[in-house]
Amino acid sequence: MKQASLYERLHLTHPIIQAPMAGGISTPELTAAVSNNGCLGMIAAGYLDPDALLKEIKAVKKKTKNWFGVNLFVPNVYEIEDCALHTSKTLLEPIHESLHIEQHQVSLPEAKCDDDNYHQLIDLIIREKVPVCTFTFGLPSRDVIHRLKQQHIILIGTATTVKEAIEIERAGLDMVILQGSEAGGHRGTFLHTEDEGLIGLMALIPQAVRLINIPVIAAGGIMDGRALMAARCLGAAAVQMGTAFLTCTESGATDIHKQAVTKATDSQTTLTSAFSGKKARGINNTFIRMMQKHEHDLPVFPIQNALTKSIRAASSNQNNREFMSLWSGQSPMLASLQSAEELIERVMEEAEEVWNGI
Amino acid sequence: MKQASLYERLHLTHPIIQAPMAGGISTPELTAAVSNNGCLGMIAAGYLDPDALLKEIKAVKKKTKNWFGVNLFVPNVYEIEDCALHTSKTLLEPIHESLHIEQHQVSLPEAKCDDDNYHQLIDLIIREKVPVCTFTFGLPSRDVIHRLKQQHIILIGTATTVKEAIEIERAGLDMVILQGSEAGGHRGTFLHTEDEGLIGLMALIPQAVRLINIPVIAAGGIMDGRALMAARCLGAAAVQMGTAFLTCTESGATDIHKQAVTKATDSQTTLTSAFSGKKARGINNTFIRMMQKHEHDLPVFPIQNALTKSIRAASSNQNNREFMSLWSGQSPMLASLQSAEELIERVMEEAEEVWNGI
């Protein structure tokens, strides 16, 4: 029942949504390829301004007539703390030197909450009639929900605990992504400490589906037909896959990032807040190890993200994997280099095999 | 194929193994009830001496003619560090006072590795013809494996990463328990740091089953038919359930522990090494929070375990949940007070419903 309604409502042939991967990984090519192959492609608008998002939407629309979605970061209120800022700059300085970064002008976010940009993105989503909008890092306000719902845009929240899922349903969103501790990239936790929001999908989904009625989309470490069928058994109607799409031909991830993922093992990812000020899962490297002891003394998101930008860029340009954010979920051993179409076909074939084999 | 062979080899009607829960939770009543209902009951011998284990085996044999198993801790080599010992005693002293523990004679393990007791337990398992033996915290030696295999005892290792699972297969064990990060109680990690061994089952199982051929038993947060079927889709032949059996009538967990589990939510468990010196998952409380900052300065397992014994006992006797180890997996919201028979029946019914509903 839930599943049928989700398929129809998201215009899906297969129960797969491509995770929005900010920082250039989710290209219009990837988004469109996913949507053209019976799944839902997503634009990652978390770090975009309205001009950049408009460009992405137009590029996707050129490449597909099918549905796609946009993901937004719900802005958090933050303070710029001088002491944390000083600590971070002190720790990053020797890294700048070692990477020969001479000019590293940091443009720190000015406001205490980047609300303006967010509201302009909402306006744009309405104007461009984007059919699906997902949210990370919190709940959109009543007003935002009301405006988007008036345009019949489907709204999907991201939860990392049962309580967050319940709040998303209460707020009136249409569906919920349950992000397990297995997931790569940033944690979506917003009602708990980041440690409290680390629930494995095997535990998170069955507890959540007993208490909520909106359809559930499972995210975290899902990269093959086995995990797709497992997520459905647990009570999810569909899955969201990030790392699996990250190594696809159409993804904008650098080769060094793709190689790092395909060569990693399950025990080589770790959680760090050193890149952005918010916890995220990626492949362990020198930067993460150097900063580990100091994580609690660094500025919050998005300040730390701005401070490490030049380091991440230089490291990537120099083909040095040790100072880049190599986001990955906990199943890198299932990653392979292929087109999005090949990936989707393989996963759906495997899912059928799993089903017939039990 | 793998599953059929596992059912037969473990004499199972249902693909469920009861997790061995040390410290008096796995009673002979629980073990026998599980075995009498088509599943495999387990004796937790981790903290037992040969006399105590013999008593448990005899009690179980009185109550069931069916197969059951014994779980052993593979002894680790450890050092008693004076500085860590001093830190721990200093931190625990005010807790002793607040709980009015006047005499707290600590009998610290004498040897650097408690090998003698372990080998006596092995001898006993052979003498008593226990049909199944599972291992936690490491690989048994070649000699131990050889001796047990000669008696056709089925040997099962515990892995928390793909690499550990591969090593267990290589060593010649018959099956492997994959312990996901969702699991309650102690982490079985032995080839990695404890942080590296925290893989969610959704990621751990599909990566492991591609590289190993021995049957897989999934453990961690599995408490209902949804998770049972999910584990099978991922590639496991059976599941091991701990917390689900902990709140059963036949379990020896204190009422205060059972109540704490049934009232907890998914985000209220946490990992701590403060109780024993080894990381374990339980419901957060005052003791865990007090010790959190100092975890890295405490003695290793089993020294810290000996040091906190009187505190855990006094807290339990005083019906004070704040200084006890309230082990629980990440799905406490699925726990209920019932008999083992009722639990097994419900899980199997749910599993069938899940199967028919997809």
UniProtKB/TrEMBL annotation, chains A, B:
Q: What is this protein called?
A: Probable nitronate monooxygenase
Family classification: Belongs to the nitronate monooxygenase family. NMO class I subfamily.
Q: Show the catalytic activity.
A: 3 propionate 3-nitronate + 3 O2 + H2O = 3 3-oxopropanoate + 2 nitrate + nitrite + H2O2 + 3 H(+)
Q: Which GO terms describe its molecular function?
A: monooxygenase activity
Enumerate the Gene3D superfamilies for this protein. Answer: Aldolase class I
Species of the source: Alkalicoccobacillus plakortidis
User: Which key words are in the record?
Assistant: Detoxification, Flavoprotein, FMN, Monooxygenase, Oxidoreductase
| Cofactor(s), by name | FMN
The reply on keyword Oxidoreductase is yes
SUPFAM superfamilies in the cross-refs? Inosine monophosphate dehydrogenase (IMPDH)
Biological role stated in the UniProt entry: Nitronate monooxygenase that uses molecular oxygen to catalyze the oxidative denitrification of alkyl nitronates. Acts on propionate 3-nitronate (P3N), the presumed physiological substrate. Probably functions in the detoxification of P3N, a metabolic poison produced by plants and fungi as a defense mechanism.
